[in-house]
UniProtKB/TrEMBL annotation:
Record localization: Spore core
Pfam families: SspH (PF08141)
Protein name per Swiss-Prot or TrEMBL: Small acid-soluble spore protein H (Minor)
InterPro entries assigned to the protein according to its UniProt record, in alphabetical order: SASP_SspH
Main location: other
Length: 59
């Protein structure tokens, strides 16, 4: 995923499915470096992980 699309998803009110390593995640924010994002799994667990935005896949 590129930075422009990630910003569009973050500003959208739509429920856009994004996956990281095959797991559905919520994007919390684009980090200041512009190359990583903080995400957490959809569901009851809210453990946050920093991932490279190139590894995020819109479904």
């Amino acid at each position: 995923m590129d930075q422009k699309r990630l910003k569009q998803i973050l500003s959208s009110s739509a429920d856009i499915e994004v996956q990281y390593n095959g797991a559905s995640v919520w994007i919390d924010k684009l980090n200041e470096d512009g190359r990583t994002a903080t995400v957490h799994l959809r569901g009851p667990l809210e453990e946050r992980t920093v991932v490279d935005i190139s590894e995020l896949d819109e479904k």
